[in-house]
Amino acid sequence: MASIDIHKARVRDALPPRRDPYFGAPLAPGLYLGFRRLDEGGTWIARQREDRRQHFQSLGPVHLKSYEDAATEARTWGKRVLAGTESQEVRTVIDACKAYVADRRREKGEAAAHDAHMRLSRSVYTHALGRLRLDKLRAADLRQWRSDLVMADASKNRMMGSLVAALNFAVQERYVDPGKAMEWQAIKRFHVTSRRDVYLTRDQRRALIGALPAELQPLMTCLALLPLRPSAAAHLTVGHLDARTGLLKIGKDKAHAGRVIPLSADALVLLSAQAKNKTLAEHLFAHADGTAFVRQEWGAAIREARGPLGLPAKTCAYSFRHSGITDLLTAGVDSLTVARIAGTSLVQIERHYGHLLQRHGAQALATLSLG
C-alpha cells in the first residue's frame, strides 16, 4: 500500500474519515506513523512489526501534537516493542476494558477516562465475564452478565454501552478478530420509556445553582441557559466557541452527531468569560487545575443541595435540560428547532414531551374560536 504524506497538514485535512489509519513512509524498519482521520480532527497511530505480529499504539490527538513530536514518540515506542519492554497483551475482557480506559485518557482526557473506569469497574471487573478471553466471548455470556446486574434497565443500557465501546476498541486495535463483533452487535438495548418529568421553575433553578459549590456554578448555569446534555457541556472546549458569530459547536454526544447552535446574549457572556485566558484545547468549565468535571462530582453536589431546597428527590443535572426543553416548547418554539438545538430527534421530542405539544396545540386551536 502506497504511503501518504501525512506530515503535511493540507494532505491530512483532505483525507476522508475512516476507521483504518493512513500510514506515511516508514520511520524505521517495520515502524510506521499513521493518521486516523475522524469526523473532527484525528489522532496519531504508531505501528511496529515484530516478526509476524503487528503492534499498534495511539499517540494522541493531532491538534495537540505535531508530526515531528509524534514521530519521535513513535520511534521511542517502537524500540521498546522490539526490546520486549512494551507489553501489548490484551487477551481478556478486563484487559480490553483497561486498554480502552487508557485510550480515553489519551484521546479525551481524565474526565472521560474516569467515567469509563467507574462504569466498567462497577459492572465488569468483579464479574466472571471480565476473566473471559476475548476470542471465547459469546453473546450468551454478555446476556448473562447483563442479567446479573442489579440496576434499572436504563443503567444496564449505559453499562452495556461502555462495555461495547471497549470491545469495539479491541477490534479496532486488532486485539481480537473483527468477526467477534457480531457477538455483541446482536444484543439489543432495553427499551426504556420512562419520561424525565422533574421540571424546575426558573426560581428553583437559580436557587439550586446558588446552593452548589462555586466552581460548579458556571457549568450548571450553562445547562440552565442551553438545553445540553450535562456530559456534552462538561466536555466543551474553548475551540468549540465562536464568540465573534455567537455560535457554539457541540461535538459528538449521545446523539452521535455534531451540531452548531446560536447563543443567547446571556449564554455568550457566560461562555466568553469562561474562555478568557485559556487555549483552544482547554475546557470551558473545569477545576482550577484545568481538569474537567465528571458526572459523579456534580451528581453528589446536587443530591446534597436538593433536600434543603425542598426540590424533588429525582432532581439531577438532567433536570436543567428537561426544564429548558419544556420552556422552549411551551413558549411556542417548533419541535424541529428544539430537537436541533437539543441534539435529539423529533421522535424523542414527541415521546417525552408529546403531552406538552398536545396541550399547546389545544391552546392554539382555542384562538380559532368564533365566539
From TrEMBL:
Q: Which UniProt keywords apply?
A: DNA integration, DNA recombination, DNA-binding
Report the residue ranges that make up the Tyr recombinase domain in this protein.
195-366
Q: What's one Pfam family the UniProt record gives for this protein?
A: Phage_integrase
Q: What's the superkingdom here? A: Bacteria
All residue ranges annotated as the Core-binding (CB) domain in the record: 88-171
Name of this chain's protein: Integrase
Task: Give the organism, scientific name.
Answer: Dyella japonica
